[in-house]
Amino acid sequence: MRLNNRAPTLEELMSALMNTYSRLPVSFTHGSGSYLYDTDGREYLDGLSGIAVTNLGHAHPRVTEAVRAQSERFLHCSNIYHIDVQERAGALLTERASMDRVFFGNSGAEANEAAIKLARLHAHERGIEKPQIVVLEGAFHGRTLATLTASGNRKIQAGFEPLVSGFIRAPRNDLEALASIAERNQDVAALLLEPVQGESGIHPLDAEYLAGAAALCKDRGWLLIFDEVQSGNGRTGSYFFHQQLDLKPDIVTTAKGLGNGVPVGACLARGEAAETFAPGHHGSTYGGNPLACAAATAVLETLGEDTLMDRAGPISDAIVTSFDASLEDDRCVVATRRAGLMIGMELAADCAALVPAALEAGLLINVTAGRTIRLLPPLVMSDEQANTLGAGLATVVSRWWADEARLAGAA
Ligand SMILES: Cc1ncc(COP(=O)(O)O)c(C=O)c1O
User: What is the pLDDT of residues 380-396, one digit of tens each?
Assistant: First the structure.
């Protein structure tokens, strides 16, 4: 809504939007690599990548060119026709994932919905009338009704009851609990988990737990579903995190970094699971559309030809080393957890205030689960930028911790 000839303020721009986000007082006009620029031309070092989306950095030339070229051809045609660029993206992604087939959707939640439907259908075909899916405490799988039910966070479920039936919650990293669920339930169809939990504060699940869970799934005939919406697409140093552990899930979901900013999600399956859906079982008007698949193809080709994924470890090390070296009082950090470029620093107190403080300092970060700083920087970040991010963040945290101490003293 343009009220007069001046540029609308941020509040005016926001006024038509539903109140679903607490937005920070900044608006960006463009980005390049690891930087975003606001309406005043100020530069911000992006330690968040749109929450694990722009893994190749902003305005990556290859993605930009692919989107431009595809938009000159055509943006969309229905899935009732063959779409060459979708075939190409599908072939590249299934090869990367060592999977047999893929269904393309538009988001992480939709990718997980597809996986949940697939698991249920697979179970029904095997005579399980009321299939159950085991999900973990601390999980985040999306905001649709089924995926928020699968998520292990009461906050995002409250008010949206009745929730969807058919999920059993288990503690994370607890193989005995899984075995006990298996003993008590004959109707389990699948285990759905994030190998690295993101929203709950960056918790890479224990390698022994994942291997044990995979063995149990095989033994019991449960489908093993990995949600790699956040941890996929090169973010942890391999295309998918589970590939570092040499695990073979039946289904993998991903989204976020797959389009480097163009909405696209994917549910991949192998073996029997890959043959479960037949025409009419599932679909999406936009899923796998030519524009999204052109972007995904550019991302997959870039990550395939480049050594970019090898940068995840060194960038992560540089950030954490600079952070630790510049922190004035390390008692404020309870734990640092990471898997490549998924970095969580759990602090000793609630620290949401760090997000606007970092913004003031020209750094884009996130705080999740109340007291964990979450960093998800792009694979194109240089060592120098990584050092700047780590040291700059340490300054912001040191100032915040000194304030916390002062407030505690005053209380
Ligand atoms: C692990 C995981 N799964 C699913 C989702 C949902 O993805 P989307 O927001 O694209 O629906 C997210 C989003 O943060 C996620 O981190």
Answer: 999 999 999 999 999 99
